[in-house]
Amino acid sequence: MNVLAFDLGGSGGKVLLGRYDGTNIHLESVHRFENSPIPINSGLYWNIINIYQQMNIGIRKAISMTNDTIVSLGIDTFSNDFAFIDRTGELLSPVRSYRDHRTQKYKQETYQKMSPETLYSLTGNQNALFNTLMQLSAMRQAGQGHILDNSYKMLFTPDLLINFLTGEFVSEYTISSVSQLYSFKDQDWCDIILDTFQIPKDMLGKLVQPGTIIGPTKEEYNKQLQTKGFQVIAVCEHDTASAFLASVNDRDCAIISSGTWALVGTEIPEPIITEQGLKYNIANEGGYPGRHRLLRNVMGSWLIQEIREYYKENNQEYSYAELEIFATEAKPFAYLIDVDDPLFFSPGNMPEKIRTYCSNHYKQAPQTIGALVRCVYESLAFKYRWTIEKLEHMIFKPLTSINVVGGGSKSNLMCQFTANACNKPVAAGPSEATALGNILVQLIANKQITDISEGKKIIRASFPTQEFFPEDILIWEKEYLKFKNLLNLD
Fold first, then answer.
1. Which of these is catalytic: 76, 239, 338, 340?
2. Cα separation of 485 and 139, whole Å?
3. Are 472 and 348 in a shared domain?
4. pLDDT per residue as tens digits for the range 48-73
């Protein structure tokens, strides 16, 4: 059976072909493209037209490769961003990026309407400026409420793309669950929040669970792509939800979905919404039925991507492998930073931002690219450990191993640093976990496999992992204590 996964991230998108032969999944990269937000005036936007076009380029290639035998397509993306459309599916707004500054501008007004404590108690979501609620509130504060009041639907990015293909208006559960608009208790949109922030409930799409077959592609679309068409399935559309499904470890382990963001968490049966979770901004996120994620966002490889982009703009282009070599040559533990400091959130001249941070804390700063990269990698590893410790306290049991999935699992240096810092064994892979989680849900919907447990066995057989074990434990333990003291972490 041939199925397609469209996986859109903050730095790129890809269409992957999954061929399931009844025993193994064979994954083939069909099309890849770069994706980054575009600044226009004071706003930051995603080029949704190009994203749609690039997705279709990949679909066309896959149709040609398989002699038009694609059975279904699933779409997953980053969360929280959206567009408004009318009854015919016409776009009424661009898609703003979650890194846009408008939420910061209206942060105080938003929290005056409803406190972070109340929001957390109602949703279990992390309090973050990029949340959908924060974006919608900012629109009201900026005098753009007429868009909310007069649009037919607000659709999250993957549901918008699904509408382009099928004409259906849905809101998939996993991506809805992280919007700060959803109540796990009510298993529906949170009426208290919607009323407080004047968000029309009927503007939100019909909630559907992952595994729901949305429907076939439109005839008009089929004609444009010269295909007989295929089914579109609502997978776990939040990319982290898809990535966690493909973890090869058992449930009592830590999972790090490592990409632009590093999502450090674990799977639990149901939400845990407590004062401790609020204190450490631990997020509850919906997953495939019967699964739930407890995690915390860590800035991830965003800093490395931005360092690389800065040097590229200055005519010095390095591969990630070269950056790792430079890092191994740099002095260990010379500089440690809080990778989640707001200073690092927005794009632009990341080396200078890191140097500014270090100058403020050390009175000196890393000068070479190797020192910059090593500083980020070591700091990330320590922030992973601190986050895992907080998760263990919340679930009252240890997480004895770590599975790093996603693109970051290909970094041997980062995986080894993670094992060292956390003093836990690390299994690295699969690197295409998000696409594989996407594909697993399609295979279940298409009645090719029975459940996620069977799917995980297939992934283990199809995509072996690489193992990393802790080294230099005493040295890393000593430096971790310094890291916590530097950042005033308890």
1. 239
2. 39
3. yes
4. 999 999 999 999 999 999 999 999 99
